[in-house]
Protein 1
Amino acid sequence: MENGQVYRATTEAHPGPGIGPRSGLAAYFTLSRLTGFRRLKLLELVLSLLAFICEEVVSQCTLCGGLYFFEFVSCSAFLLSLLILVVYCTPLYDRVDPAKVKSSDFFITLGTGLVFFVASLTFALTHDNTIAEIAAIVFGMLASLTYVAEFSFMLREKLKEPRPRKGEATMRREHLTEPLNA
């Protein structure tokens, strides 16, 4: 028997995503699109989660409005960061328009950073001085600074991109030789 016939039925030229060292969900998840400053997304995710967890540990509050606002914002920031991270790190990125993903990420990062900063400031002004509240405020401020830092990197990258120039209007010569009051 030839070697080709022996191995033909048992070997595959290109194994599928479920075969090999990266199998299951790990085969569909990659950090290759998170280059440069985009790795701040991981830090934003962790800091917003830590801020949310520290806030959830708080058992009593005197002025609860700041706490509830911080709770909503930190949870929302975590979920939005997770959503953007999933889009960047899965094959979903290939199915959507990358320009729209970057544009959405740009505005989500700006909005989340500003609102997180306001929520952290509000919570800092209304907290009861417990260790869990102070830790939540610190993580919230660090997260908001991370969002703002990433936004500034995105803005710098956006300003460096060459903008398409509008085509110059071609003037017709016949109008130039005609008198104005004809």
Protein 2
Amino acid sequence: MAAIEASDLAISYGDLRAVDGVSFEVAEGEFFGLLGPNGAGKTTTLEMIEGLRRPDSGSVRVLGEPVWPRNAALLPRIGVQLQASAFFERLTAREQLRTFASLYGVPATAADDWLERVGLVDKAGARVEDLSGGQAQRLSIACALVHDPELVFLDEPTAALDPQARRNLWDLLSGLTESGRTVVLTTHYMDEAEILCDRVAIIDRGRILQCDTPAALVRGLDAPARVTVGPGQLTLDEARAIEGVDNATESVDGTVLTTRTPAPLLGRLAAQDRLDGVRVQTGTLEDVFLDLTGREYRA
């Protein structure tokens, strides 16, 4: 049984078609990413699947149950971390989490355990309004997970976190599916999606453009590799004369060689004793994302 079955979802706001025929499935135990530029329809799609917004057309089943009409039986089985967190006023972080836990009949000790898992033990007595943006984000994630849901929705969970906190949270998130839990993630960080997600769907202008594993999407792009040779080792003329080099440019890091045959090229550089400081960058999920959605600024 699929954890999520979305079929031909559509919704409009006036003349704007925010979601336009979105269909996909998420398997039980899968870590699934929904990626797209600002205004692509990611959050609206999630809200329809979560039962927070009724689609104009199409259907959704979550954990084998229809979402509409509003299905209260699903609420204890899902956890939702929204893009904009809403907390009870004037409660401390511990009180906040214990309150969420009590709504699901979860003991206070389990709530306190989640404070430790998201690194907020030292802020347990601080009021929510005194937490930093990143701390409030981590508390929001703990509130979504405190009742041990089968299916978790995370809407840009690391958006306000510093790099160290992001990496620490990745360790937590990567273990969520180990017990069979299903996770659906939206993020603007392509490295995050590439590391965490089993599959990703790229959405733009309300439509799914591609859906596959990150590795398969990168392979399908057939992007050239970029081999950077340290400064002073190669002139542009020497670089362009090497067999297998499609193009060569200068950068602050050295000479950048573009090639579709990186392995033979590295062999030739080794034969010329020019491997010191060499870096190889192949195609990434970010390259796929930009290729599909374009590079123009979005509001």
